[in-house]
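Standup notes
- HV: blocked on the assembly model, inputs below
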Amino acid sequence: MDLNLLTNQTVNALTMGGIYALIAVGYTMVYGIIKLINFAHGEIYMMGAFAGILLIGVGVPLYLALPASMVMCAVLGIMLDWAAYKPLRRSPRLAALITAIGMSLFLQNLAMLIWSANHRTFPDLYPARAVQAQGEKAEENGPAFLDALEERLSMPKQDAPAKVKKMIREEDRLIVEFPLATGETETRRAISREANALLNEMRAENPDLGLENPSIGQSLRHFLDKPAVSIQIGKGPVDISWKVLLIWATTAVFTVALEALVKRTRVGIAMRACSLDQETAALMGIDVNRIIALTFAIGSAMAAAAGILFGLYLGSGINFRMGYQPGFLAFSAAVLGGIGNIRGAILGGFIFGIVETISRAYIADWLEISSRYSLAFAFAILILVILIRPTGILGSSAAERA
Amino acid sequence: MEKYLSKAPQWIAESLRSPLRAVFILIAVIVALSPLITRLPGEPGRDYINVVQLCVIFSIVALGLNVVTGLTGLLDIGVVVFASIGAYTAAILYDREWMQFPYSFVIVLIAGGLHAAVWGLIRGAPTLRLSGDYYAIVTLAFAEIVRIVQRNESWLTGGGQGLKGYPAVNLWGAKLTGGEYEGLLRSDGVWRYDEVWGYDGLWFGNTTEFYYLCLGILALTILGIWRLERSRTGRAWLAIKADETSAMSSGVNLARYKMTAFAISAFIAGVGGALLGFRNNVISTSFFDTWFSVIILCCVVLGGMGSIAGVLGGTFIVTGLSEALRWGLKTLDIPDDSRLLFFGALLVVVMLFRPQGLITRSRAKPTEIPPDSGKNSLYEIGGGS
């Protein structure tokens, strides 16, 4: 077995598991309190990712963008409850399920109208690209090429140089920063156009140049992009970047804080009381509607955090339908752990992260089937758990739910 | 049969006194005469008949779902499994050499339904003990697994591209479908929401005969369910829906009647799915995805669960609403993309004002239901308010 691959996959599984756990918490809290499968929760996760793109895109630093988008989504969650679920508290539960579906459709298509149906990439934390010389004689002729490129890009010409904000010449590469408004694609296009023109000129002078089109890659200048830990396992090093550590830390902090909130504070006691019996809770002087709104706010904030962390981790695949699959997986995770149970949801999230990754990386190979079956394994496990232990791994009170 | 025919005049006279029934009879007459409207020149006629035919076929699938969700009281969010299995089975069978004989179309429809019923039993057997949300989650997860399999086993199903190039359908020499493939799906296999409801004036090469065949199957389904509801089986289903424990203690064999419900529901949905496939001339997992189940469920719930009239009304409203929105938005010069936005919002608004559904089951009169019913019967739409 390839240990290197295994370690990489484990890192991946833990990261995705943390993201699923953060989404699952929202499902489980809402279900625990009003017994509703909040179909629109995945859309809140999507909105969180888009809020992150917007905020980071205009230059808000990550440590401000994360809480800001959490607050925005918390407000969205409260509005969702107020508009679609609160009027139906005394109606049959299926009515609220249909409004949940309706809100899910509404939010998805709202996002499509606002941000178009295209996939988006998460903005770079440090908007810059690194240009590296490539080819047989890269070491020999590369530095001269990069110097010339720097000079060429800094010359005040009509369009291309104007888009470059700043350049840093390092030993074997040239880092080109670009202003946020311009965006990566245009800068990249401008760089490669200039580089090609320059290469043609240089080739005309020296036919034996030995240089190909340069590679234009990530700059890795932002500390979050740099590897924090590098372990030598198997064939090569396994890098765990600061980004991944940040995701792990955020997941850990949020889940521990949430657990403390629910178990230790007055609000948490009120929440648990409402999930047991709303009428009695109201008689004890608890404002049930406020507690439900707070539950939606907390769950939505967690989903927003998950959305931003997902964007930060994968950097791409953000579009109006991104909420569906993770939402579904996270809901399954909540059921797996025992719905209504926060620890269960976190555990379930990690289990689903691991199952998804492992089945994609290994099981599909062993059975010689497409890796797209990985989701099917996750759902098969969900069905098995429901059939064998309907209350989930950490759930209790089997009599009512089975 | 004669018994009903002799009662018909009386029934019609009675119906005309009840405004709701009168409206339904009017709609039934309009639907029955719809193909005549296609003789009208221009686009509106073709658009109209496409939508009505889709409504008719969706009604069959929705009535199938209603057996489990409306009558037996188990929330099923995976009806797409049976519709898609019915569609794939019928299409693959119909394409065989040895299936070319005058009435083979009937055989493949039944085969599609039976295959779906088998899967209904396979899914149903282990889940007999489950109820409420847990049953719903299993149906949802099962539907995803089936969809993933259908999407990946492209040697059989055509994968994401879908099964295209349907054979022309002939029934005793009458040409039913089989025009040029005009494309419900884009080649990238992405479900274009705009076209799901059969827009763009596509008549899919279907003929009036096919329309009447679908309508006939719908009528058979209505008749069958109407009879079943009033039989021992139907009463057993309603008892299970009201309370499983008391149904069991009254001597209702839970396993047997639940399995019957699963099989019948899957059979009807399978036949509906097969018709849908032949209508569209293409089947793919992008069309038969979770949203399909969700939209059919909306049809059942919005109209009022359990009652046949409610399900039919709900289907025509959900499907028609979507079309009305398209025309409304076009006139107001609002981009067509926003249609599902308004559709979602309308779904919410309708449910807020009529949480029990638009048309409630006549048997479940509000007075018969204890005031606390909102809690006990989670999925009884006719009840609480």
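- HV (later): unblocked. Residues 398-402 of chain A have pLDDT under 50 and may be disordered. Chain A touches chain B through 49 residues (CB under 8 Å).
- Next: hand off to the docking folks.
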